């Protein structure tokens, strides 16, 4: 965190005063604002689990006006959403995270019904089976039922990123 000293002349006492202001730390949090779109009406998907990997103080999920926001500390952490149909079919996960100050995204399109975010998310870290996936800002996959799934960064401004998930 940097400290800024501001000196100015006080009009009342005709004296110079010093104000100390604290700037935002250089490693402030990132907000990943996630919107989910469903383009096919033959099944309705719902989010059944949200998780955050606890690394570098982790982060948290929040929701407002239909937008999910993952707030993470600056580097090497992520969150995951697990989806399935309202009938419990076609489960898949979407990972959104930050690595080296860049958003990274991934989809696991065909997970077992018993696989959870708590089980799968750590596999992206510490030489786990998913630790070698490409770190990309857009990802598309197709599940076993030939349903198209996509996730992509649509806009970024400062420490805030808009991410769209599209379920076809």
UniProtKB/TrEMBL annotation:
Matching Pfam families, A to Z? FB_lectin (PF07367)
Under the heading SUPFAM superfamilies, the entry gives: Cytolysin/lectin
Kindly give the Gene3D superfamilies that the UniProt entry links to this protein: Cytolysin/lectin
Protein name, UniProt field: Uncharacterized protein
